Known about the structure:
alpha+beta; Alpha-D-Glucose-1,6-Bisphosphate, Chain A, domain 4; 4 helices; globular; DUF2867 domain-containing protein; DUF2867
Amino acid sequence: MSSPLPSPSLRSRHIALPAEARVAPLYAGAFLADAFAIDLPPDAPRDTLALARFALENQAPWVDRLMGVRDSAVKLFGLKTSGALRADTSPRVAFFRIYETHDDEVVLGEDDRHLDFRLSMLQRPVPGGGREVVATTVVHCHNRLGRNYIRLIAPFHRMVARSALDRASKGGWGRPPQ
């Protein structure tokens, strides 16, 4: 008789940068690099793109308000707003451009004159059975504006990243209600 799988945690947690993420080569020299993970329930979808969409396209209302403040500020510096990003016709998840899709990982991001960033949504097995999703962000700044921008938004970025994973988990990762 097999032992039961550990109960999945419904809360995200800060973890070490995953070596197996496709964005790992970008860690060196990054101005910001962090990773957050959350356990997936056994019946969660296995489609990593669907998991990324559910986490990133169902943000908390406070995140939308925060993005409005961010957009008003960055517009003054000629930087891309979330609305401008959404209007871009390239394939996207929320306002993030899709760079790569794989069975176990989706790499999203954007390049701008002040910084380039990538967001990896990696689905991987956990010891003892089960799976988790790891959201890894890597940012390379091109100038002082980029560095100051990241210094200002880094605490908010961490709150938003964790909130997205926590809300997706509480929402069942898009599974139909039982």
